[in-house]
Each structure stands twice: as structure tokens, then as C-alpha cells.
User: What shape does this take?
Amino acid sequence: MIIEPRVRGFICTTAHPAGCAANVREQIAYVLRNGPIPDCPKRVAVLGCSTGYGLASRIVATFAGGAETIGVSFEREPTEKRTSTAGWYNNRAFEIEAKKIRRSPVTLEGDAFSDEMKAKFIESVREKFGQLDLLVYSMAAPTRTDPDTGQVYRSAIKPLGAPVAIKTLDTETGEVFETTISPASEEEAAATVAVMGGEDWKRWIDQLADAGVLAPGFRTLNYTYIGSELTWPIYWKGTLGRAKVDLDRKAEAIRERLGPDAARVVALKAVVTQASSAIPVVPLYGTVLFKVMKQLGLHEGCIEQIDRLFRTRLGKDAALDEAQRLRVDDWELSPEVQTEVSRRWPLLSTETLGELADLPEYRSQFLRLFGFGIDGVDYAQDVDPRVVPG
Ligand code: NAD
Assistant: This one.
């Protein structure tokens, strides 16, 4: 079939196997250009390994760090007539490339929130790796079923306390408008913490520690976004921020159990991913941020951020912030970037968007997540959606 993007709001319901594979290969090429990372942990797990920051983590650990990896993600498989999720294609492309350098990656697809997946994962680690040196938790999910109670929690991305009026962007039409988002109820806020907070992270680490599959010196990382005042009303001071603060608490609890360096929350910059495009304000903020960071020569996507994390922030002497986090969002939050983004923010309108922000770049990055718009891929070719080219 000929596969074209089918965009519905902030999701694309199709993905291109050759495009996703090319995207994975481009990320690998970037990491290889930067050379090896000799002191990278060698037995690495990535939860949420198929897209965004998790995929980048798996690529950096494997292709620069020389690690063996086990990844977990939630996917839909392809059929003869329907494409899979982009993550399924990415996982296959990653495996093909990793095998070329004689790695033997293990990928488990299913619900990482479930205890069944945790048990299956522990079996695989015992069988293939013995123990783990690093676990990266990079999950972003809209819902979570509590394994103890069966209750389904659904996250709500909303402010807390009072309604918030904020500028936003319709990325399909290019219209900039003000919208008012009503505050979350206590129940919605608690559900968001249950999905996006640290409970599942802690549960993973406890079960792995109980099973004896964590190596001496084991470390775990969990990714967060803090951002700037422009997005705080909806992000850091809203339900999502409350969930992310819970990560700091759980990191502390893991350190108490496993040692003072065992767990770190890592603050990363805003990038276009499937998860971030669903958050109000973030696409508008992103279009301005990308333009400013490009103009200043500071632009980074997932692979550049994670490459910098692994090369410069994993040493024992890496600087921590007041909440014991590692920070790789320093360029985004630098005064030169934030002063310029804040200057442009009040001037943003449908008419000025083209001059002050970079919507075409945002759209192109969004389509690339699904394997579209990538140089060298022949989109006119009839392809079997079940086959990822090697
Ligand atoms: P993403 O949507 O690209 O990736 C999410 C991953 O989670 C995918 O691999 C998906 O398959 C997996 N997943 C979802 N539900 C699952 C389930 N039930 N079981 C197993 N796997 C599941 O998201 P992302 O933007 O890369 O986000 C990853 C982390 O990075 C999040 O913690 C996010 O807050 C953080 N972060 C993102 C940004 C950003 O701008 N995108 C910035 C800073 C931090």
C-alpha cells in the first residue's frame, strides 16, 4: 500500500515503516559521529523505549555506550492493511541496526504498568543479562491501571485552583488564540499523579531489587520537564507539575533503599514528541523556542539532549539542582533564550506567527515522529506495512 500521514488533531494514525527506520538510522548516525562513551553502563533497561526520549536513550546506550539493552513499550502491530504504531517500526529498526553491531537487544511489548510485564521482564533480565546497571524510565501514557486494585486512572492536563487563560496554537490551521482551561478537580489531580507520578517507577525498582537483578552500583533515571514561567500555569503549576514533583519524592525513596546516587530525576528540554504535542501551550511555546534556539545555534532534539546527558551528566561529580535533579534543560532555560522567547510571547498572533515562531519546523518534526517527510524515503512506493526494511 501507499502510506500517507493521516493526522487527527495531535495524533497521526498512520506510520511509515521505511520512514521510521530512516529516522532511527539518522539518530544512530548522530551518536556515532560523536564517538564512544566508554564509561556508559553496559546492561541498560529502557521503559518507554520506542519513541521520543526513551528511543534516544536506547540508541545512545547501544551505539555510543556499547550496552546491551532491554526495552519495554506499548504498541499496535501492523496488519496487511493497517500500519503499526511508529514505535513498533522504531523497535524493529532499532533491533535490525543493533544486531549489525552484534548486540542482542530484547524488546517486550505490552503494558509496563502491569505486574505481568514486570515478571516477564525480570525473567528476561535473569536469562539474558543476569543483572542491570541502569534503568531509564521514559514512559508517557494517558492512563494507568493500578495492578493492586484494577482501578483505571486517567490523567487530566489542567491547571490547579483557578481557571487559566492562555495563548495556544492550532498546529493544523496556524491560528493563535486565547483559551481558558478550567482547573482540575482533586480527583483529576490525584489521577494524574497516579499515571504520571513516580508510583510505577518505584514499583519497578522495588520488584527488581526484590528479585536480585540490580547490579551493585545500579542507577535509575526518570525524565521530567520543568520549563519556564510561560508554560508554568498549565504545566509545572498544574496537574502535570504535581505528578512530576511526586517523581522527586520517589527518587528520594529509591535513594534511601539503594544508595545516595541510585536514583535521579533528569530535567530535559521541550521537544516534539507524541506525548508533548498533546499538552496545551506546549506546541505554541515550542514553535517560538525552536526558532530562537536555532537562531542562537542551540537547537537540540531528543537525540542531541540524551547524547549530552550520557556524555556529560552521568559522572559522579555531575552538578545537581536544589531537588537533587540532573539538568540538561540548561540551554532552554538560559537567560539569552528565555529573554528572547518572553519578548516574543506577548507579540504572538496568527499574523505574527510566521515571523516570530517556526510552525513549519514544528509540523515537520511532528510528521517525522511517524516516519514522514524524511529525506531519501520514497513515499510513492507501494510497501508492505508489516515489513521494516533492513
Ligand atoms: P513519547 O510519547 O515519545 O514516548 C512514550 C513511551 O512510553 C513510548 O515508548 C510508549 O510506547 C511508552 N508507553 C506508553 N504507555 C505505555 C505502557 N502502558 N506500557 C509500556 N510503554 C508505554 O514521550 P516522551 O515525550 O519521550 O516522554 C518520555 C518522558 O520524557 C516523559 O516522562 C516526559 O515527561 C519526559 N519529558 C518529555 C519532554 C518533551 O518535551 N517531550 C520534555 C522533558 C521531559
